Every structure is written in structure tokens, then in C-alpha cells.
Amino acid sequence: MAVSLPLVFDPPRRAMPPRHIADLDDDARTAAVAELGLPAFRGKQLANQYYGRLIADPHQMTDLPAALRDQISDALFPKLLDAVREIECDSGETRKMLWRAVDGSTFESVLMRYPQRNTVCISSQAGCGMACPFCATGQGGLQRNLSTAEILEQVRAAAVELRDRDGEGIAPPARGGRLSNIVFMGMGEPLANYNRVVAAVRRITAAPPFGFGISARSVTVSTVGLAPAIRKLADERLGVTLALSLHAPDDELRDTLVPVNSRWKLSEALDAARYYADVTGRRVSIEYALIRDVNDQPWRADLLGKRLHGALGPLAHVNVIPLNPTPGSEWDASPKTVEREFVKRVRERGVSCTVRDTRGREIAAACGQLAAEG
Fold it and tell me: What's the distance, CA 89 to chain centroid?
């Protein structure tokens, strides 16, 4: 099977959105406030409004002098995203948002409520250049990287949605309407937008008033296997969970299902994952979309278990994901009997393995379905 779409690591040249306070680290925020001729304490005050109180409009910041609000709004709080469409399923427990940026780029995020946690799945790019043929996002191609602020605005919007619905904000553990978990599993390859994603993670996990205060252990960064970037992320010592999208235990099939495998082979991706586990002490999540008659054979389950046991041992956990349908795709999810046998065989090799609870299929909000149409 030939790979029909090229990998895109460098997105098309498109203007990034205007500077936003969420793009700035502590030093840059202090400098930006000084440029406006304001005292240094205003920087902390603005950060607290954004990250602590979830307010992105200075005109609603009652602790700011009214005379300063227009100036601060223009300089540090430009409107970045418009909500184009919102649809829900699971009795309102799963909600997908289509966003449009100032340049017309579109992308999606998904908010999922569970009994013990509330999770938002966010995008790091508009589109994706990794070209995985079973993924709607990958088939649509890459528009551009998202800015740090565009990433963080998805988090803030989810927290506001939960707060306004249930009367609480960001503060894990999840009770009522608190946002507790962030997964970089929306549109795009997070490690292909490395600097902005890492900056976003730092602000997601920083303690208030300089971040949302989400535990690093509750943040997951997914990748299709950009081995050098995985090692670099390990050295950041951020402590987030790494999710490696494997989808095949052999290079021949993975070259087709995950075209980045033509650059960094399976052994290189697993070596990088082991390095991540060793440096961080965190177990690596292995994502495996189970596709009928493609990657669900018993011998592939045996090989997957064998390779993961050798490469990661107890530091690997396999999430089997029943393939989610996408428009025009000839591929389908494996039958439940095949799925159960696959899981059993992986476990028999000494590797933890479970089937992921899939949310949002009927509104194209599940893994591999995000396409930002409309």
C-alpha cells in the first residue's frame, strides 16, 4: 500500500494572530505592561484575571481603571476565536466546538464530562500534515500552527462553559463544573508545533495567578512518533503524560497507517518513548486504533505485546481504540470478538491493555473524526 499524501512538518506560511497576553511568559508580560507605561503589578493583575477568573475582556475587569481598559484590550487582549458552531451528544455530556480564527482558519475542540473528571480535547494545529489515511484530520491537510494563545483559549473556553453551567471553574479534582484534564489529541500533531505547545503546557500547569493550575499528571500530549521531539519533551521535565499513536507493531504496515514512520521507524519511536519514561518516571500510553482486517490480526496482537514488553515493560499501557468512521473511508472497526481477542493476547505478553471509552461518534467528535468543516 502506497502513501498517497506527503508529510508536512512545516506549515504553509500564514500570518500568525496578533499578540495576546496568553502568548507571553512572565518576563514578556512584564515587558509588555511596561511598554504601555503601566506599573509592574498590572501584569500580575491581568494574569490573574485571565487564568484565575477566566476573563479575557478588560472591559469586564472591574479592578482596572476604566480609562485603561481600551488601551489594554487593544494591546493584550485581541479577539482570537469565534465560536462558529456547537453540537452535543451523550445527553449534553459531550460537546464539540468549531472555532474560526482571525485569518479564517478553522479547528475544533471537544469537552467531555465524566462522573469523576471533566476533560477537554484541544487542537494544536488547524488541520494536520501527518497524512494518516484513517484520520479525517490528516486527510484534510495542514493549514497552519496555532499560537500559544489560540491553544489556551480552547482551555479557557471549556472552563468557562463548565463554570457557567455548574457554577465552578478550574480546580482539580473534578467536582461539579471544574475542568480537570487536558488532552492534546484534537486536530494536528502537537510535537510539530513544539515551542507553542510546550509554552501552552507551562501555562496550563503553572499555579495561579500565572497559569490554570492543572496538574501535569492530568495533561496528555499525543504524538504519531516524532522521535527527536519526544526526547526533547522528556528533557523539559514537564511531567505530562505522553501518548504515542502506534497503530501497528510492524514497520511495513505502519509506513502506510502512520506515514511519519518512513522518517522515524517503529524502533526509534519506541526507543524515544522509553527515554521519556525513564526521564519522567511516567508510564507511556500507546494508542492503537483497531481496524478490521488491517491491523487486528492475532499475530499482530502478539507482536505488539512482545515489542512493547521488550521496549517499555511495565511502563507501557495500550489504549485500544475502535476505529471511528469517517466520511468516504472504506475501513471499519473490528468486530467485538476480534477486539476482545486482541486485548487478551496483548495482556498475555505482560502488557497492560484496555479498550478506550469512545465519546462523540455521532457528532464526529471522536478520535480521528475532527475535520473542522463548516
Answer: 21
